[in-house]
Amino acid sequence: MQISAGAERIRELSRRFDAQHKAENVAEPGLLTCFQNSTKKELTRRQVLAQLGAGTLFIYTAGRVDGDEEKNGSQKQVLLTSRLHLSPEGIVTVLTGKVECGQGIRTTLTQVAAEELEVAATSVRLLMGDTALVPDDGGTWGSLTTPETVPAIRQACAAMREFLCRRAAEHWQVEPKSLTVVEGSIAGPGSRTYSYRDLANDALFSKAMNGGARLKEQSDWQICGKPLPNVNGPSVVSGSHKYSSDLAYEGMLHGRVLRPLNHRCRLISFDATRAKACRALESFTTVTSWE
Fold first, then answer.
1. Do 107 and 50 share a domain, yes or no?
2. Of residues 146, 116, 130, the one with CA closest to residue 215
3. Domains held by the chain: number
């Protein structure tokens, strides 16, 4: 972490400042000039920042661990299965630590996955936010899903598409570059085909590595950049979609905080007679001060 001027340092210099005795202790050139030109013996923090023309700059630097590396350890290459699963029916499940909060990222991630896999959007499922299964993609905030998670999912799906071509080429003894995936399937010699359904039954899929695949050019997009209905739309409209408030577990209790009307109130008295008479109430506690 690098800090141009510590906040405590600025406050101290702002409160009690003597230009002749303090100037040599100020490391920041901008602050030094500001203080030397000042004829006041007392400067407020607001006056210091106003004369500088800019506030204090705090710069934090930290290494970032890729979501797939977080799940699979420090190895440089990670397995495709840390990001993608295949069902025997050829349905692709994309794993992500992001969550859908109404911002539409389930649809966005479905769209980019389908594009790189060369399948219909209906052949893609998303498993989101289940920390026992998904990579650590970081929290869902700051509009970071598109710039950070979309590239990770595109890369994984492109790697799976290329792996599909390599396996088909090995079966048919042809060059992988000569094969093209169309609607989740590759057409081979003698009317043969090789699809994601076949790949799901391939023992080598569990050892396939994620990384190094070539992404599709924007000019070749067939799904991205075009309208796609919200993939959760039907369940939201029908009421079958489950939200966190719909979760129910055996023995689960609900709690509620009853707060005073104003800040810094103190509880003078509380009659618990009616509360204790409520059969559904398991327990309660009181807080005398709300600071």
1. no
2. 116
3. 2
Regarding whether 41 and 90 lie in a shared domain, the answer is: no
Dihedral sign, Cα of residue 176, residue 75, residue 124, residue 196: positive
Q: What is the pTM of this model?
A: 0.63
Residue with tokens 């998670």: 149
Please check whether residues 48 and 87 belong to one and the same domain. no
Range of the domain at 117: 67-220
9-68 confidence digits (pLDDT tens): 555 555 554 444 444 444 445 444 554 555 445 666 666 566 555 544 554 444 544 554
Which H/E stretch holds residue 151?
Answer: helix 150-172
In this structure, the answer to whether residues 213 and 72 fall within a common structural domain is yes
80-129 pLDDT, tens digit each: 999 999 999 999 999 999 998 888 999 999 999 999 999 999 999 999 99
Q: Is 212 left (phi over 0), alpha (psi -120 to 50) or beta?
A: left
Q: Are residues 195 and 81 in the same domain?
A: yes
Q: Could you tell me if 156 and 193 are in contact, meaning their C-beta atoms sit under 8 angstroms apart?
A: no
